[in-house]
Amino acid sequence: MPETAFSPASLAALSGTPSVKRRLLAMVYEGFLLLAVAALTTALFMLATQNRHGPLYHYGQMAVLFLTIGAYFVYNWTNSGHTLAMKTWRLCLVSGADARVPLRTAALRYLLAWGWFVPAFAVRTLFDLHGKGEIAALYAIGILGWALTAFLDKDRQFLHDRLAGTRLVQLPKAGAAAATAPAAS
Question: Domain locations in the chain?
Fold first, then answer.
């Protein structure tokens, strides 16, 4: 069993819901890690397609990136309950009474999490916006709007977690967990 998988009884011992600030900082770190994943995926795609250009190749590259990033998140959420960024910030994804997140739930959460960006992307496309400042402001408003959904939830979970039936919990510090663990007989 993965090191961060918890039994339903041990979920009560966790520190509770992490702050919105902590989750947003973990997302920033995750963004840096995803840049590396995207760069490697793009390099491999360019090698495989011999760097051909055209709409078909562009949409193909976007689909491959979408699937690769999805595989990264779904694999990590279902196996250990966290990504590298989540582990660094001591965050763990759990699902209802079952601490382990099922594959279907992780895939649903990944799709729902695009709510951070899809509305801004749709407005950008609808109004044919191309200015860097306009686009940056649009995405910032979309991200801020989605982040505010946590303040509308009684458990301070983001909308995609509420809809997917998952929640983020904060793990105790490694030293604190060892100090409170019962001694082996």
Answer: 9-173
1, 22, 14, 159 alpha-carbon torsion, rounded to 10°? -80
What is the pLDDT at residue 173? 84
Alpha-helical regions (H) of the chain: 20-48, 55-79, 84-88, 103-113, 118-126, 132-147, 149-152, 159-164, 174-180
In 59-127, the DSSP E strands lie at: 91-95
Structure confidence by residue, pLDDT tens digits, 150-182: 999 998 899 999 999 999 999 988 765 555 545
Q: What does the DSSP assignment read for 57-69?
A: HHHHHHHHHHHHH
DSSP 8-class letter at 157: -
Asked if 168 and 18 count as a contact pair (C-beta separation under 8 A), the reply is yes
- 153 sits in the region (left: phi over 0; alpha: psi -120 to 50; else beta) called beta
Long-range contacts of 174-181 (CB under 8 A, 24+ apart): 180/13
Give me the mean pLDDT over the 103-108 stretch.
Answer: 96
pLDDT tens, residue by residue, 115-135: 888 888 899 989 998 899 998
Intra-chain end-to-end CA distance of the chain, in Å: 22
